[in-house]
Amino acid sequence: MSNTLVSVGDLSANLENPDWRIVDCRFSLADAQAGQRAYDEAHIPGAYYVNLDKTLSSPHIAGKTGRHPLPDKNTWINSVSALGIEPQIQVVVYDDVGGAMAARMWWMLRWIGHENVALLDGGWQGWQREGKSITADIPESPQPANTDYGMLPSLVRIIEAGAVDDSKQALLDARELPRFKGDVEPLDPVAGHIPGAACSPFSANLDASGCFRTPAELREKFRQALESSKPIVCYCGSGVTAAHNILALKVAGIDDVALYPGSWSEWITDDKRPIATGDGV
After folding, report:
1. What value does the CA radius of gyration of the chain take, rounded to a whole number of Å?
2. What is the four-CA torsion angle of 247, 76, 30, 194, rounded to 10 degrees?
3. Do the first three CATH levels of 5-151 and 157-267 match, i.e. the same topology?
4. In the chain, what are the domain boundaries?
């Protein structure tokens, strides 16, 4: 069982394993239906599809929430049950953007206490590159699981906006540097970052092949935050790609990391909250 990454070879060897469940998380912020279309065209055999907007988020309330608020926990547990997922099942999630979307589901399963969830290292592209089988066949709906997730302790930490404080925390922003600096902002009405945060793009967690870097390389990437001795808090634009940094930190051996789920898109809904631009720390 794995709780971080699974290789293409290991997943391929377990396609027929009834104790494994595969979930396709492909999604485009520019086209909310693109992931479903891609899944319908071809996917890993046996994979089920989940949509970021419909399943991995609750509705966005403009001016009040971030763009991808977490769903109600009981609603999420019901969604997990509908996929036939039980605590002992090995779940493997994947997408076609380096794990940027799939890491959200990885984190959300840990949120309800599911330990055995891993991201497919290399994703959809890695699967295709190694010539593994694909299909357009939709698997039969699984028997809904009788889960006891409501009784399991969460495996993650959450911090809300009111508790975000760069004097007490090492804040890591998973967005690319131009958005962090406030030079561009394609998605949110206000540009910039939370004061005191450091830019730590999720894309830098990956090597040229789209696989995660080694634990040593990831520890070097996060060295400044680790050396601060402050608790690490990850955020991004809407609480999605921040989970990629949390996964990368876990791969590097650092487990006690908090997520600010509302992230930048929620932060800016209150004009009393400070905003910074430029390179930051």
Report:
1. 18
2. -50
3. yes
4. 5-151, 157-267
Q: Can you tell me the distance from the alpha carbon of 73 to that of 150, in angstroms, rounded to the nearest whole number?
A: 9
- Of the listed 199, 211, 234, 236, which one is catalytic? 236
DSSP letter, residue 68: S
Q: Are 145 and 21 in contact (CB under 8 A)?
A: no
pLDDT tens string for the chain (281 positions)?
Answer: 789 999 999 999 999 999 999 999 999 999 999 999 999 999 999 999 999 999 999 999 998 999 999 999 999 999 999 999 999 999 999 999 999 999 999 999 999 999 999 999 999 999 999 999 999 999 998 888 877 898 899 999 999 999 999 999 999 999 999 999 999 999 999 999 999 999 999 999 999 999 999 999 999 999 999 999 899 999 999 999 999 999 999 999 999 999 999 999 999 999 999 999 998 65
The CA distance from 95 to 122, in Å, is 9
Q: Which one, of 180, 221, 226, lies nearest residue 199 by Cα?
A: 180
CATH number of 157-267: 3.40.250.10
C-beta separation of 201 from 244 below 8 A: no
Active site residue 236: yes
Please state whether the predicted TM-score (pTM) of the whole model is above 0.90: yes
Task: Confirm if 218 and 248 have CB atoms less than 8 A apart.
Answer: yes
Measured between alpha carbons, how far is 215 from 208 in angstroms, rounded to an integer?
16
CB 182 within 8 Å of CB 199:
no
Homologous superfamily in CATH for domain 5-151 = Rhodanese-like domain (3.40.250.10)
